[in-house]
Write a structure and sequence with these properties.
Elements: H1 2-19, H2 24-34, H3 39-63, H4 71-96, H5 105-126, H6 138-155, H7 161-171, H8 175-200, H9 208-229, H10 234-260
Helix pairs in contact: 1-2, 1-9, 2-3, 2-10, 3-8, 3-9, 4-6, 4-8, 5-10, 6-8, 7-8
Length: 262
């Protein structure tokens, strides 16, 4: 089992880093499809892995002074994301209460992730034809951060392409500052979501070896993915991104059918 989980984590974070997605949006649906752990455990393991990856990436950027994010946008987004991370975790708990089997809530997660991923794919293909905005109002920026944090925490995916689409469209950002803002959103939303899980969730079933291994391999996958990304051209990255979005949609359809019958 360890070999399967660690392989999923390393490959997901490597490919995610190559495409600028992070790893959560791949780890979460693939782990759900594997059926190795209950949904709550998958949410926690995925969240901790994403949190560790993001904390490493943010710290590395700060130490190397590679942090072009605009503070006027990044700070309100991060604040909203922190609130959204808490709200998203509680929203998921409420959704679980609607079902006799708590794992059935994964069907709702899968349906939402399928729709969001499909929207991300369409925007990516049509991005050059869609005019972008320049939002400057701090309250609106904070509200956008809250929405991103809520979605990423509720879905257990970290954020990834959803964050980038919002940053491209609402702030007309280039890829480098968008990536830095996305990291802050993920860091703050996952931090509050993980703390909420630690305080409210029964984590007796969490295998500490699996948790430690996923965190270590998640960071390693992020490092390898960044290096591969630097050696291939943008057209290749874009093709891989689109293929990955299609694969994620297919996996979420499988998970939706699987958990809807519980």
């Amino acid at each position: 089992m360890y070999a399967i989980v660690f392989a999923i984590c390393f490959l997901a974070t490597t490919v995610g880093a190559i495409c600028g997605l992070g790893g959560g949006i791949i780890i979460k649906p693939v782990m759900d499809a594997s059926g190795l752990f209950p949904v709550d455990t998958v949410n926690f393991l995925s969240g901790c892995t994403v949190l560790a990856m993001t904390a490493y990436a943010v710290a590395r950027s700060r130490l190397s002074k590679e942090d072009p994010a605009d503070a006027r946008v990044a700070l309100p987004l991060a604040l909203g994301a922190a609130i959204g991370g808490y709200c998203g975790r509680n929203l998921y708990a409420q959704v679980q209460g609607f079902f006799p089997n708590p794992d059935s809530a994964a069907a709702v997660q899968s349906a939402c992730l399928m729709v969001i991923t499909a929207g991300t794919l369409v925007y990516t293909i049509l991005r050059d034809r869609i005019p972008s905005l320049h939002v400057e109002n701090p309250a609106i920026i904070c509200a956008l951060g809250l929405a991103l944090g809520l979605m990423s925490s509720f879905l257990g995916i970290g954020g990834g392409p959803i964050n980038l689409v919002v940053l491209f469209y609402f702030f007309s950002m280039e890829i480098k500052p968008a990536a830095q803002c996305s990291l802050l959103v993920i860091l703050f939303s996952q931090a509050t979501s993980t703390v909420t899980s630690l305080l409210t969730q029964d984590l007796a079933d969490v295998d500490l070896v699996v948790l430690a291994g996923m965190i270590a391999l998640g960071i390693a996958g992020g490092i390898v993915g960044r290096r591969v990304n630097a050696r291939i051209d943008s057209a290749t990255v874009n093709r891989l991104f689109i293929a990955l979005m299609v694969l994620i949609i297919a996996i979420t359809i499988f998970n939706l059918q699987k958990y809807a019958t519980l």
